[in-house]
Amino acid sequence: MPAKAASSRSGSPIAPTSGYREHVAARDHVAVRASLEPFFRPRSVAVVGASKRRGSIGGELFRNVLSADFGGSAYPVNRNGDSVAGVHGYRTIAEIAEGVDLAVICVPGEQVLAAAEDALAAAVRALVVISAGFAETGRAGAERQNQLLALVRSYGARMLGPNCLGIASSPVHLNATFAPRSFPAGKIGFSSQSGALGLALLERAESTGLGITSFVSIGNKADVSSNDLLEWWEDDDETEIAVLYLESFGNPRAFARIAQRVARRKPILALKGGSTQAGGRAAGSHTAALAGSDVAVDALFRQAGVTRARTLDELIDVATLLSAQPLPRGRRVALVTNAGGLGILAADACEGAGLELPQPSEATRATLAEVMPVEGSSANPIDLLGGATAESFADALPPVLADPAFDAAIVLFVPTVGTDEDEVGAAISQAAATAEDKPVLCVFVSAKGAPPNLRSAANVPAFGYPEAAARALGRAAERGEWLRRPAGAMADVDCDRDSAQAMVREAVAAGRSWLDPEQTRRLLESYGVPLVLQRLASSPETAVDAARELGYPIVLKTAAAGVHKTEQGGVILDLGTDEEVSAAAEWLSVPLLVQPFVRGGTELLVGAVQDPVFGPLVAFGPGGVLAELIGEAQFRLAPLTDLDAEELVREGKAGRLVAGFRGAPPADEAALVDLLLRLSLLVDDLPEVAELDLNPVLALPTGCLAVDARVRVTDRAQSRRAKSW
User: Which CATH class is domain 41-247?
Assistant: First the structure.
């Protein structure tokens, strides 16, 4: 009963087709874009709480709007209608004759609702709430935030914040933030859940020559979120890269859908701060123990095509590379250096970043021999020696970049006596201009920094250390691989979903936590999960009868619900006689499970766990009693596509086992993919299934069998949320 691409399940209503989903997504996209227009392209801005007093947040923010040379009209609004920075003031937005597109609210938290209602009543449809005192302060603040959101929604308006730094948009010269200075224009759309960290990132980006099309501090993101911003940047021709600093997700599944679409057109880089609370839950299964707090984020980003950076520096380094150079076609890198030690460090860094260092072709080595010192090395890393000049790089780089053995090049230079750094920079840039769709990076180790003319003929990004260049190139290679990866198809299976749902809900209503063996078997069989034969025995005598029926040798196990059988001494293998079964049954105590002893096969773990934020995660890794010790389980968010399942089966240590490790026969890959797809749909259909372990699954040359299964269920009643986007 293989899994297949389909749009319906037995016993279930017809599911929406992919065409319908695309239509809905396109409709939502148009609506979101239209609702965000006043934030990014306002013709008029009012700052509510703009004081004439220097140093006040509202007053300084209004002055920032003026100093950025905003292309529209700007109005200060304050209690007395005072003028600010020479601009006539107003007591309310209603007094302003011209319609206001964007209102920025900078009043104390307890006054925000009244200020927001005044703005909304005056037909303002975009609010930026700078003020703090909302969900970040506790229960009372959260209630105030809910009231504010309900008010904004009642007017059909949108809101950024509260508790945010503001918004900047380069095309209209808008700086509606209280940042100390304006932002340079560029090609990056940047969103930050932390205002202060966002400013620090922007300063770091500016030092590397990066600029923005827009900067959005989303704060508590009660309404406008990173999901919305991706919708805006998708069709913004001036934005070429989206950069996100995230601390939480409002709707991870919506983020995954939107990001996966946008990432096909533009890179999305993300730095995730903090962690979910998943790591704090009780881990009763191997799968839950292996699913650390950051696993879901990795799975989400991987499936959505989001490039994840681990540090602030890496985030900027990758943005710098992607904004300047093409993506590599593969992971093969040439290193060209004038310092052997630096080349060795770069080689180590490349290996750590998952990059490869093949050797140049014979033709390239012959060409290099004509232009290099005899003592130099044409092996990769290619060492031009310390006496290398601009001419040395100009002669050596073009043949290396033309060599089809390489997908990218990192040029490493340390200034030496007698070398002109500017000339070297120009030579590297000019050589890089000859490369056809190959990225060229430079590590320029100089106290003065890289010369500006590195970007003259070709926009060669410079890095201070080889590790930074290698990490950035590794991330670029990951993106290239994701873009070349087929989208994959959602799979469906023939199953008895209704019976499974009824059984699980009955167990939850009865107060059960771990399903007993018969319930577990019924649940898994309803989704076509391949299981080893078994019989339930209530006495040593019935255990012997079951063993005779199934055929020796057999395995005897405790049937207690939820027990780690090996850890509790609850399993005895390879019993070959009635006497052995009877003695083992007396020792284990009833109830018992009797199963045939299946020889051979590779022991694997297949499992699932419900993450409280991200929903169901499916795991695949080495199994058996050492599953947690070995680790290396791979995770994906359910529901899986066929390609997701194939990647799980082929990657990591488990992939090596499946392929046939150290002479073992290869396992049936198709059967394992089918099993993963069935399990994925089960946990996606049934959120009450909190943890599920199939361990071990015996992967055989033909087929696979789960020989032990444990399922924990819980009440997953969903509370209504004011925010669902």
Answer: alpha beta
